Amino acid sequence: MKAPLDLDQLQTFISIADTGSFTRAAEEVHRTQSAVSMQMRRLEERIGKPLFEKDGRTNKLTEEGDRLLSYARRLIYLNRETLAAFDDQRLEGTIRIGTPDDYADRFLPEIMARFSRSNPRVELTVVCEPTPGLVEHIKRGNLDLALVTHNDTRGQSEVVRREPLLWVTSANHATHEQETLPMAFGRPNCIWRRAAVDVLDRQSRDYRVLFSSFSATVITAAVLSGLAVSVLPECALRPGMRVLGEADGFGQLPDCRIGIMRGQTSQPEIVDALARHIAESLDNISVPVSEEAGSFDFAALAFAKMKRVKANQIMPGW
After folding, report:
1. Contact indicator for 243, 304 with CB cutoff of 8 Å
2. Per-residue pLDDT tens for 235-287?
3. 99 pairs with which residues across the strands?
4. pLDDT score of 87
5. Quick check: 78 pLDDT over 70?
6. Considering the entire predicted model, what is its pTM?
7. Which keywords does UniProt give here (predicted)?
8. pLDDT greater than 60 at residue 288
């Protein structure tokens, strides 16, 4: 029977993967660079596969290294959760978190499950509002933490996930072929709405806003019923939607960046723990829809991803 994997080696491996540098990883794990290199040699010997390859000045994961990364994150998380379950000094209190409802639907189940298992004495109070409202709540001290759509002009947030922003229509209707394009958008201050309007204006495409709402449920219903076209991040895709691309006459949109904003709080330990759980949860969540007949156009989605990877050198697997 093979010996179990070393958790310290896995933690160092994750740090290298996240920073792209043995030197910066050594600073994070408080070891010398030579000690980090020795850990990785031993981990590669244990796995029996090369985990890194040089890409200029950075250390890029091999295919085997990329496979190991998801397992390593889960093992480190499970170790932390196990220790927390037997910690008599576990965190307790109440924390206020805010998120738009489109993120809540996709991300909150995973976030809440992970966090509650590790911190059963912490009560979560959840507020669902669009990002502009959440930013104001953070500024006024009404929230301890918010998961928001990152916008450089709204204030600082820590980006924890990047996804393609996509044109979507109903898979069962030809709404996108109408001469005057019916659109379903968020409120006028929605960053996705402004991005979509900029693209349509540059293409001199006639459109009219048929539905305007801060509710993701309303926007989704308008798209699925064939009443309107909209723009949604990858996480908000649903069965019955079709992704539109340049072949359909729709220009490329900027990526959606999902970030964490922190408020002034008297419980920084709980906020830090929740922020860490959010980052880990979002890192493990993949496309929400299965590839089957009647879902959405995966070829268009894959093409959109490929273009972004080539243009921005963003690693796939957002």
Report:
1. yes
2. 889 999 999 999 999 999 999 999 999 988 777 888 888 888 888 888 766 55
3. 128
4. 61
5. yes
6. 0.64
7. DNA-binding, Membrane, Transcription, Transcription regulation, Transmembrane, Transmembrane helix
8. no
Domains with residue ranges and CATH for the chain: 7-85 (1.10.10.10), 93-162+257-284 (3.40.190.10), 165-254+293-312 (3.40.190.10)
Decide if 277 contacts 271 (C-beta within 8 A): no
Q: Which two tokens stand for residue 237?
A: 């895709």
Sheet of 256-262: strand order equals 122-128, 93-99, 145-149, 256-262, 158-163
Q: How many residues does the chain have?
A: 318
What are the residue ranges of helices labelled H in the chain?
A: 7-19, 22-29, 33-47, 63-85, 101-118, 131-140, 191-202, 216-224, 268-284, 298-312
Closest to 65 in 3D by CA, of 45, 50, 43: 50
Residue 96's SS3 state is strand
CB 73 within 8 A of CB 14: yes
CA distance from start to end of the chain: 35
